[in-house]
Structures are given as C-alpha cells and as structure tokens.
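Following up on my earlier thread - several people asked me to post the actual chain instead of describing it. Fair enough. Here it is, all 608 residues.
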Amino acid sequence: MAPPLLYLQDIHLTLGGKPLLEGADITVAPGERLALVGRNGSGKSTLLRIAAGELEKDSGTRFFQPDATVRYLPQEPDLSGFETVLAYVEAGLGPNDEDYRCRYLLEQLGLTGDEHPAHLSGGEQRRAALARVLAPEPDILLLDEPTNHLDLPAIEWLESELNSLRSALVLISHDRRFLQTLSRATVWLDRGKTRRLDRGFGQFEAWRDQVLEEEELAHHKLARQIVNEEHWVRYGVSARRKRNMGRMARLGDLRKEYREARRVVGDVKMTVTEGKLSGKLVIEAERISKSYEDRPIVRDFSIRVLRGDRIGIVGQNGAGKTTLINLLTGKLEPDEGTIRIGANVELASLDQKRMSLHPDTILRDALTGGGSDFVDVNGERKHVIGYMKDFLFTPDQARTPVGKLSGGERGRLTLARALALPSNLMVLDEPTNDLDLETLDLLQEMLTDYPGTVIVVSHDRDFLDRVSTSVIVSEGDGRWQEYAGGYSDMVSQRGQGVGSGASRKMIPQKGAEMRPAPAAPTPAAAPARKGKLSFKQKHALETLPARMADLQEQMAKLQKRLDDPELYAKDQVTFARISAAFAQAGKELAQAEEQWLELEMLREQLEG
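Reply from S.P.:
Thanks for posting it. Predicted structure:
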C-alpha cells in the first residue's frame, strides 16, 4: 500500500472558547477521493484549512509528503492584487507546470482571462479560482464547496474534469449528486471527531443513521446503569457501616460520562404557515414573451400551473430563470401574451441573493419585523426565541446582526422568514444554497407535504429529483420547455442535460409545443452515388411520417396522464412507469425524425 500523501492525526482546535475539533483524523492516499461531510458549523472548512496549512491547530499532527503538491479552494477566494484573471490563475502554477492549461480551463469555464478581478461576479470569481487550483494538476486537491455559484452545465463539466484527473480529492459540498459521482470514501466530522467509511457518499447516510441508532442505544444503556448504581447507593448499604467507595467513584464517573457526552446537534424544525386553499388553477400563461434590448429572455411560452404542482426551473446562468419566475407570479408584465393568476393565491418567496436581509438588522427583528417578541406560525403565536431554536439558533444570537451570520445561518434565517408567511404558493430561488444535508432533507420533506404549489429554481439535481413533479428547462434563445418528473426524468426525455443543446434551433411538431430540431447529418454522411432509393429506403420514407404521428399522439396521451398533479402522490410506481414510457416514445420519435431527415436529404440529392 502506498504511503499517504497527507494525514492529520488527533487534531484539536478551540475557537472562541468552545472546542471545535477534538481528535479529528484524515488520511489521504494517492488518487483517493474523499467526501468530508458534517453539519453546518461542525468544523469541516476549518479542518480543510488546517490540512492546507492555512490555519494552525492547537495540537495534533499534520504531515504531507515533502514532494507532494497541494492546492486549496476556499469558499471565498481572494483575487485582489492581480491585474487580470489570467495573472491570478498563472500565479498558482508551479515551476514545472504548463501555462497552456490556464487559458484552456478559463475558456472551458466561460472566461477569457483578460477580465479585471474586481469586476467579476461571485460565480465568475469561483470559476477563476477553480481554474487556478486545477491548472497545476496537483497531487492533492482540497475543495471547499466547489459548486457554489455554478450553474448546472458548469457543475457537470467540473465533475467530468475532476474525474479525469489523477489528483487525490478531498471535497466539501452540499450537492449530493456531485459527492455521489466523485467520492470513493467518506469522512464524517461530528461533534469534533471524525469517523471514516471506506465507501462513497451514496452509502454514507444509511451508515450514519445506523451509527446514531447504536449510539442512542448505548446512551440509553448508560442511563439505565446510572439508575441501577443510584439504587444501590440509596438502598443497598443500609445494613453496612460504610459505603463501598469504589462503587461510589464508579457512579461519579458514570454521571460525568453521561453529562459530558456531546449529543448530536438538534435538527431544524420546519413548520410552514399555510394560507387559504387556492383555486384549482394557480397560474395560466399563454404565449408569453419578454425581451431586454432585443435579447429574447422568454419567447412564446405557455403553461398551466395547477394546485399541488411542484415545478423546478433549470438553465444556465443568465438564461432568465428569475425573469421567468417574475413573469409567472405577476411581478413583471410580459411584452406579449397573457398571464392569469388564480383565485385566493397567497405568495411567499425566497430570493436567491437574500436581498431582503439587511446586514445591520438583528436576528430577532429579522424574524418578527421589529417591535414584537412573537412570530405568527400557522395561526399560533410563538416566542421568537423558541422559533430561533427551531432553526438551530441559540438565544444569545438574538441580537446578532444579520451581516455577522455565516452563509448557512443566513440561509436558515431566510427560510424561517419565508415559512412564517401565510401562503399557498411558494417560490424558492436557490433555496439549497449553504444548507447542510440534514436541513436539505427536512426542507424536501416539508415541500413534499406542503398542500400548496411550489416553484423552485435550483442547480441541485438530487433536490430536483426528490421534489419536482415537472421541470422547465431553458432550450436557448428564449425558448423554455416543460418535462414531466424530476431532473433525471428530464435528462432521459430530452436526451441530454442542461446546456448540452441550448443553442439548437427549435421546430414545431404535431402533438407537442416545441421540440429540439434533430441535428442535420453532415454532407460526408450522404452517399455520393447517383441513382434511386432502394425499395427498403423508399418504404421507410413513405411510412415514417405515419409512425412519427403515432408516436406524437402516444406522447400526448402519456403527457395528459402525467399532467395529473395527484398521480405522483397517489401512485409513484405508475408515475415512474408512464414517465419511462414517455421517455422511450420520445427517444423513438427522435430516431424516426432523424432517419426520415437523412432519407429525405438522400432523395433530394439523388434526384439532382
């Protein structure tokens, strides 16, 4: 077995008088792929900074091979002091590294390298920082939330790029699909200590639940043992002149062990405040269009949103997802088309940039609106301190300014505000940003049980698979298309992920609003000979139109069944079967269209 490139052993660190790390260990072998997971505030980023040499530990051992190269991606990269992005990326190269990779990676990530760092958005800064750590192809890559601020095409590109590298990886991410794809082992940081599972993240959650169950059982046994010892102390020595001091010391030790055992951090308790029941029809948009400076953002889009729908919206950054939401909720007027909002619709929204949170507002005022100690939740008045505890805030944080909160804490605060508003339509723009996995689980459950309608923008593929009943995808040039099911169902029906064909032209098809045009075959693919079509080719050319019409009619019938908002909740097996049939019919239709197009081009060529 090869010696480890890096290991941390028995790492201890105290921050602000509170122990954060109490014996954490990590070992990284050549080519290893580690997922580092844990609750928000458990110390994952701190441990990664110690591994990178950015932060000094209180005690413990840090070792890495002297000839090994390591690169660290922080959550908030610092690009100050550089005139161009290219200069920033090249500064991360070692003496023997090739500089051509800097330009290549920046190109792949949508940057030229000539940009000034001060003018970059958060997402562009993250892309530049990724190029800087990837360019040297180091022995060890330490990546802290590498998918933050990235859109889906960039996330999927990054997955592919990291898979192609020989570097060892240590990943912190809240993106389940990203961790499942890349990890081969998992390190769980919990209450200051680490546990290791030599399997990828896909196996982690079942293992974690088993560990916690065993721990709870052991804790219960310890409590019973204390009860038994206390019974002996009180009643077992009445006939003796003195007590057994050994057993008394044992009782003291048991009490101390029980008292000092650090229990699992509590779970967030989410309760949504429900509004009046909305009408069956929530939103109806008919052939709406919106452009800015001659650039189409939404073009000729129609949709009917019914009560109980859970609609995901995905697309590249800049595609117009937020604009589409604002159109559908009536915040923006379309240039063309009509939008009708149903009866009794009460909207609660979560904005992507948390703009509604002023940095100087203290936490309790952000929840109550100021001037009160209570929050109205689902028709009940709840003291703000109790409501704070539901979202893992401590009472001493009540007067903490919002600007002093971490990204995860701001995410929980914004959710707490949104869920306290009476609503039957929830619009969530990137709700998963900065939330830990356990909080994400609870949010998914809450949205699944929510009796109203949900529209959510997210780059989290796993979240969309678990929550969505349909997904609206940007097809480019202002075109948007709705697909039944979650993100994986969309990819199956569409034949590709987001961004893979965004610029393809659209052609109208019978039985569907719009479908991507099949790629035209290259001239080289067409035979050069002259003559006539064979009998088989001629028969196929004559029969394919009827076959395509049948498939379109079949898809329309399946789509009608999938449009039933109650189907998924009542019978998930049937929903999955119909979704698979819809996807297969779409695949056969695309093949038939492509075959017909090739034969038609061949016919025209042969006829001169």
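The radius of gyration is 29 Å. That should answer part of your original question.
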